[in-house]
Design brief:
The chain is α/β, with parallel strands linked by helices. 30% of the residues lie in helices and 24% in strands. The termini are far apart.
């Protein structure tokens, strides 16, 4: 007898969940009756009805998650954790014990896990990642960690970028030896460079925080420590930087200024030289670790510096300025910009490979208009994330016993074959741009301190 089709419960039904639901049907052929969303509110009810899926008002907590999952899931189902502050660790542990497949778009703690009163290191992505990786064991249901647009799809684009740069330089390389290739190309920095220009025709109100995706999720990222994969060419740590006490030691972390955020010099094809916020992300650590070369004595001989440089949409930039001016207090109003209110713009996301003779940006540019034509209920931002999820799911369904897995270990060709049709224009651009006399981090970094506002 043929096994029943897996069920796809979504934990969280915000902007990404609402954009993903129609794509599960469109790209993967999932029957809407096999999709259920559990959420802390019913704001996505109209989208759920339009797609034909069930939406239940059911937040997950440390006390109720095991009972709820046991009542609604069985072996072979696929749990998609799209929520903020729902523990990846605890959901993965349950899924591994019950033969349920799992995917999230970022490694999350329970509510309160980002609070600095527990010390800075336990709030870092590196720490959260190590707690989940410690659950690894052989021959278990696949659990894909941190796989949306970035983190996730960006690691597959990084491989494509290395291949293309090698082709342009006439450099042959053995398949699969990505760290050796990056070293041979002289790549010293991989900056994940994103610029979102989607906007609305109204100013952000005082006390309001607007964004094209989860505001609580974005504020959590801005409230965490800075993190970067730390390259072997670096000579000077940023002020206050520390190396983690556990794991591969491929990254560093340090606090933001008390009343500010760290900005870095960046480059994207649409505007060239620009400033972006340094935002902690899982790929900063996993990609740096993946591209590390060790010598015969086991010492690191090569690693690029890796970090995320983000220029969010104009309303979010205004919101950040207000938030910093209010000493990073929780905003009175937190709004994901309604899709109907977005007027124009695009989301430009790629990797900037900084090497001996310049830099090479490779990525995707998706306009708001194109996103609306490709998949309903999406902005350019949410569709890039949803594309990364369905690409990973296509791989996962073909590899259901891979255990806990990160993007770097997956078949990038298979993932990209499903995801790229939803990413708009994909390609690369060479540039002679440099932020300073060399590629050391000190030449990228800048500070932004906000003036208090009433």
């Amino acid at each position: 007898m043929k096994a029943p089709a897996p069920r796809f419960p979504l934990i969280g039904f915000g902007a990404v969940g609402q954009g993903l639901a129609p794509l599960l049907v469109q790209a993967l052929g999932v029957e809407p009756s096999r999709i259920t969303a559990w959420a802390a509110d019913l704001e996505g009810a109209s989208v759920a009805q339009a797609v034909g899926i069930a939406l239940q008002l059911q937040p997950l907590t440390p006390d109720n998650h095991a009972q709820l999952l046991a009542a609604h899931l069985q072996a072979g189902d696929v749990l998609l954790n799209l929520a903020v502050e729902v523990s990846s660790h605890d959901l993965i542990a349950w899924c591994q014990q019950n033969d349920v497949l799992y995917l999230d778009t970022g490694i999350e703690p329970w509510h309160g896990g980002y609070q600095p009163d527990q010390g800075l290191e336990p709030t870092t992505n590196q720490w959260l990642r190590e707690q989940v990786l410690a659950l690894r064991q052989a021959d278990c249901a696949t659990a894909v960690l941190a796989h949306g647009a970035n983190p996730g799809l960006i690691s597959h684009l990084a491989k494509r970028a290395l291949e293309q740069l090698a082709h342009d330089q006439g450099l042959p390389f053995p398949p699969g030896r990505w760290a050796d290739l990056a070293q041979a190309l002289g790549v010293q920095v991989i900056q994940v460079a994103e610029r979102d220009t989607q906007t609305v025709h109204r100013p952000v109100a005082a006390g309001e925080f607007c964004n094209t995706w989860s505001v609580p999720g974005f504020i959590s990222e801005l409230s965490q420590a800075c993190e970067a994969g730390w390259g072997s060419h670096e000579s000077t740590l940023p002020p206050g930087a520390q190396r983690p006490r556990q794991g591969s030691q491929a990254s560093i972390y340090w606090p933001h200024p008390e009343q500010g955020l760290v900005q870095v010099n960046s480059w994207v094809p649409s505007v060239g030289d620009s400033l972006a916020w340094l935002v902690t992300h899982n790929e900063s650590i996993s990609l740096a670790e993946f591209l590390t070369v060790k010598d015969a004595q086991g010492q690191t001989s090569y690693r690029p510096t890796v970090y995320f440089a983000y220029q969010p949409c104009p309303p979010a930039c205004q919101s950040i300025a207000h938030w910093l001016g209010q000493h990073k207090q929780t905003p009175n109003t937190q709004n994901v910009i309604p899709l109907a209110d977005l007027q124009q713009g695009q989301d430009e996301l790629g990797v900037l490979l900084c090497h001996a003779t310049g830099a090479y940006w490779y990525g995707s540019t998706l306009t708001l208009q194109a996103a609306r034509a490709l998949a309903p209920h999406n902005s350019a931002t949410t569709l890039q994330v949803a594309a990364g999820i369905v690409g990973a799911l296509a791989w996962m369904l073909d590899h259901p016993r891979a255990g806990i897995t990160e993007a770097e270990a997956m078949d990038s060709d298979q993932v990209l074959s499903v995801a790229l049709p939803y990413r708009g224009h994909v390609g690369g651009t060479h540039t002679p741009w440099h932020p300073g006399p060399d590629w050391r981090f000190q030449h990228f970094i800048a500070l932004f301190i906000a003036s208090p506002t009433p």
